[in-house]
What we know:
The complex is a heterodimer. Chain A is α/β, with parallel strands linked by helices. Chain A is built from 11 helices and 10 strands.
Amino acid sequence: MYEAIEADAVLHHAVRACAVIEVSGLSKRFGTVEAVRDVSLRAADGRITGLLGPNGAGKSTTLRILYTVIRPDTGDAFIDGTSVVRSPLEARRNIGVLPHSAGVYQHLTARENILYYGALHGLSRRERESRADELIELLEMKDFATRRAKKLSQGQKMKTALARALIHRPRNVLLDEPTNGLDVMAVRNLRALLLSLREQGHCVLFSSHVMQEVAALCDDIVVIAHGNVVASGSPDALRERVGQSNLEEAFVQLIGTAEGLE
Amino acid sequence: MHAARAAIFTVFLKEVRESLRDRRTLWSALGFGAIFSPLLFAAILSFTIKRNDPQNDAPVVLAVSHSERAPNLVGHLVEYGITVVPVTYEDATARAAVRDHRQPLLLMIPDNYATKFAAGEPAPLQLYSDSSDPTADRDVRRTKSVLAGYGAVITQLRLLARGVDPTTVAPIAVHDVDVSTPASRSVVALGTVSVFIFMSLFMGGMYLAIDATAGERERGSLESLLTVPVRREHLIYGKILAACAFMTLSLVTSVTALSIVLRRVGLEGLGMSVNFGPMTALLIVLCCLPLVPFCASIMTIIAAYTRSYREAQTYLGLVTIVPILPMMFASMMGLRATAGLMAIPSLSQHFLITSLLRDEAVPPMFVCLSAGVSLGLGVVLAAIAGRLYHREALLG
């Protein structure tokens, strides 16, 4: 059903370097629960890839394996050709991550939060300060950059977390349900940012259970249900595959139920 | 190696900076050691001193009803420092007066006292007191002993009058021989010094240790942190070091404060001599330092297994008692320092602190054992904490 990945398994390294995020045959169990089962997918640079599925489908688990917080039972994933299982430290250098709960340090200012990550990524003082200022400019954080994080609004905290994830100029950006809990303006800002990341040639992979969001933003969509990849491709290709002109109907048909989707 | 050191230092600096800005952390590190523990200690000490104080010699006030019936007895009471207040009560009114605390202590001389006394029969006396009133206890004992003294004098006089040697009725004579020295009498108070030092030590690092795992998780910052290209054990080492820094700060403040309090309170009043000058304080800090990484790692490990900040707080609150247990056990069993016991963290430091305060010589081997074992175990525990940071269950 997923021929592309079969072919990927034999791709040699040079080709793999272009296919920025590559996942093959991931499985992960938590006790008796099989969170993901043989998940394979691919996210290319210069594109936004959406991981769509109902709550509990295995989106977060897949992303967590990708950003090396948990290890898969079987399978592997490659970030710019680097295995997350064998060289997680190396893989982390090339990813910027906005996890599901992207908390910031309450007693540090927004700027200090960002700089801390720059230091952890091994950037020199000058490097991380100029990069932080750049991000503060880009994300329009000037008004609150020197304010303690505990006094920031939800949207401002999210921007801080995002800036912190981008401090080391990662080629790949992973976001887990980034629009959760944001107001309309913040969501608009986030979308604009993801689009500009795409323009700059980054590989953007984000998960969502909101169909409209995925449909509006993504170049490629990977549909996950019950720990399995049930379909993937461009929005047009997905519509075509199930013979539905409406993308929403197409998703419901692919997943088998509308439960857990918005 | 350089990158590892840089990463550990980065984490350390950030934790210290954040903790310095957090009132709760700062309060538990400095407030407990600098204010709460010396205050409590001073309270305990002054309570102990009050109980043994010479103010105990304050005169006993004794109300005597119908004192005119026994002038010699009353004269004897006055001679032995009892302030006699002449009153006039009957049995029922006497009971009521003592019960209502109008009279703390009342001696009733019945009307048949003089006739019985003259007849050489036991002459009745009634002493009214309230045994549920703890302050009356001392006065009752004093009064009874003075009365017994009067009885003894009368006995001797009567025996002499009958031509009998008074020593006939004193077949044995017991003498108290107290071999305790001022320093050894202070053992209990000194044990308390160790308790307060250890508690301050724990409190100083508690919130930082919780923050390393349960705190980061609850704030939702843990996952992000684990995506930076730094080995997880290095993250936790930085955090443990920051906890150590605050524990050291807390240790120094509490030892300084205790030293000031102890010298102010003046243990000489207790018949104790304690050596707690600046030099001793410094040595106490030095011999407690090896305990710091040990305690910091233990707290971090426990916090790693808890599910929330609150849970961690509860467990760590209980853990604070753990270093005190071996001390309590040792003092109950009357254990003295041996090489084997010096291998037990917290107990060995307790022995060292006590010896320093009592100005006793400590074998250098004991110091090395105490420091070596505590430090060694601290390193092992820190490594275990580092491994725990690899657990996926950590993410919750």
